[in-house]
Amino acid sequence: MTDTASAYNHWEVQPRSIRLSAGEFQQRVPLSLRGDVDAPVFVSSNPEVAEIGPDGVIRCGWTIGNAVLMVWRSSVRDSLRHVLVEVRDPSWFADHPDFASGASVFLSGTVVNALNTSGVGNALIEFRRSETGPAAYQAFANAYGGFELSVPEGFYYVEVTAPGYIAWHGWVNADPNTSGDIQIVLSPELDGQVARIVLQWGLNPRDLDSHLTGPTPSGSRFHVFYSHTIENEAAELDVDDTSSYGPETITIHRLIPGVYRYAVHDYTNRNANPSTGLAQSGASVKVFMSDGREQTFTVPNAPGTVWTVFEIDGATGTVTAVNAMSYQSQPANVGM
Question: Which of 104, 114, 142, 281 measures 20 to 30 Å from 241, CA to CA?
């Protein structure tokens, strides 16, 4: 495609090419026409990507793609110029050498099985600049689940996949001022089970405990935690961690009508009041349902030794966030 050669050579349009990042909001770019111009006409080859009105203002930025804008000098369309518009995913700018910035950060970590903490070999770890963007960096875990890679500093949306496991998603901050291994916990795919709950946290407190209470066919309530790890045909504590980070994992095998309640207990600080150890633990909980639903909960910034995270309606399977903090020194009373 070339611009028209004509007697009208003493006019110009600027800019002749535009490249910008897609976003949630419309962006406006005015064209500048100079020289022998009389009642110009504007047409876009792809209005979904870039619109242009009679005022010569380009409206774009919400749809990824390319468009060519045709600008005629006058209403009789006797001389033509072209403007190229490219709307890119934000990750393109983040990863392009011309836009690279920030220090390189070395990251290492381990991908483990939520049911037994063994390493998940050959898991694929992909780092993205946005939730929907393409993978900017990737690595494969070794046979023991370990992985290493270097990326420019910044926030990344990370996806980790492995055959037979539910994909893991989450944000990771690659910061040169912090260090430490990343632990990714993959849940095996649910095969006949109703749900799986995975708790992770930081170095302190050393011991956080998972508690699940729920209805029994006899009308009482069961309580699965470290001193009662299996409730017949209902649920079980797969992993109990007492030395920081987790995971602690509970699998629910069936639901019956009634309320199922999941809570996290700060066992380390159970006798302290006030206490902010749990609030400062960085604890997060992921719940995976058999129908593909997935929810992530983050501990509230509030004092307490018990974090009541969510409830499940046994009749409908509906998960309802609670996110309430309270105090309880007796583990047997948590969630009851």
Answer: 142
Lowest mean pLDDT segment, chosen from 130-134, 143-147, 153-157, 318-322: 130-134
Which stretches does DSSP call E strand in 103-258? Answer: 104-113, 124-128, 135-140, 146-152, 154-161, 168-174, 182-186, 195-200, 208-215, 221-224, 230-231, 235-239, 248-252
Q: Return the pLDDT at 96.
A: 61
* Class for the domain spanning 102-189: mainly beta
Is the C-alpha dihedral spanning 87, 90, 96, 102 positive or negative?
positive
Structural contact between residues 48 and 25, judged by C-beta atoms closer than 8 angstroms: no
Instruction: Map residue 2 onto helix, strand or coil.
Output: coil
SS3 257: coil
Residues 209 and 328 sit within 8 Å (Cβ to Cβ): no
SS (H, E, C) 49-118: CEEECCCCEEEECCCCEEEEEEEECECCCCCEEEEEEEEECHHHHHHCHHHCCCCEEEEEEEEEECCCCC
Please, which residues have CB within 8 angstroms of residue 277's CB and are 6 or more apart in sequence?
204, 205, 266, 268, 269, 305
Residues 6+ apart with CB under 8 A from 220: none
pTM of the predicted model as reported, rounded to 2 decimal places? 0.72
- pLDDT tens string 247-265: 999 999 999 999 999 999 9
Task: Say how far apart CA 125 and CA 184 lie, in whole Å.
Answer: 10
| Total length of the chain | 336
Domain 11-88 has CATH 1.10.565.10: no
pLDDT tier for residue 2 given thresholds of 50, 70 and 90: very low
Q: Residue 155: what residue type? A: F
